[in-house]
Automatic annotation (TrEMBL):
Domain GCVT N-terminal: 89-177
High-level lineage: Bacteria, Pseudomonadati, Pseudomonadota, Alphaproteobacteria, Hyphomicrobiales
InterPro entries named among the record's database cross-references: GCVT_N, TrmE/GcvT-like
The organism's place on the tree of life at top rank: Bacteria
A Pfam cross-reference name: GCV_T
Name of the protein described by the UniProt record: Sarcosine oxidase subunit gamma
Length: 183
């Protein structure tokens, strides 16, 4: 007996019916991102952080002392995991199937997120390249600022629908649209 498995994104039904042309304020949902968790062994935190700072091809997000998430495009999945696995004093775990990555961008992105997180997202406080674990729409998530008006949110797959719906509700007054990203 042959079994065929079809990958269906957890937000497939939530995005059905949204217009295809994005407004200035827009949520891009990554279809198949690579999300890897990196944990430093005791005493190796500084060395692992140094190696992660030199990493090319992935976006490194700080989660806590000795803990990071590395996100990247699906094309680099194995290559990225292999490079991270070569870091002495680090353990790597693939979280791709258990996490969802959403990018929210636009001139009102910070105002929309201000309704969802209890953190100051002003550029002087939460600079580009900075990330932190926090509650977003009452769900434990990792929020990263990837541009002047661009943020990425990584949430557990089981709560992605709830976070997505809350983001869309908070962005209604700013004509927030959503779609799957092209990559």
């Amino acid at each position: 007996m042959t079994l065929h498995f079809l990958h269906r994104h957890v937000l497939e039904d939530h995005l059905a019916g949204f217009e295809t042309r994005p407004n200035p304020n827009h949520v891009n949902v990554a279809r198949r991102p690579v999300i890897l968790s990196v944990l430093a062994h005791s005493g190796h935190e500084a060395a692992v952080a140094e190696r992660l700072a030199e990493l090319a091809g992935g976006s490194v997000r700080f989660c806590g002392p000795g803990e990071w998430l590395v996100a990247g495009p699906a094309l680099l999945g194995e290559e990225l995991a292999d490079r991270l696995g070569e870091i002495p004093g680090a353990s790597v775990c693939d979280q791709s199937d258990g996490k969802v990555l959403m990018a929210i961008g636009g001139p009102s992105a910070r105002k929309i997120l201000a309704k969802c997180v209890a953190a100051d997202l002003h550029g002087d406080v939460f600079a580009e390249g900075q990330s932190a674990n926090m509650l977003c729409c009452h769900v434990a998530s990792n929020l990263a600022r990837t541009g002047a008006d661009l943020f990425e949110i990584i949430v557990p797959r089981s709560f992605a629908g709830s976070v997505f719906e809350e983001l869309m509700e908070m962005g209604r007054e700013y004509a927030l649209t959503a779609s799957f990203s092209e990559d």
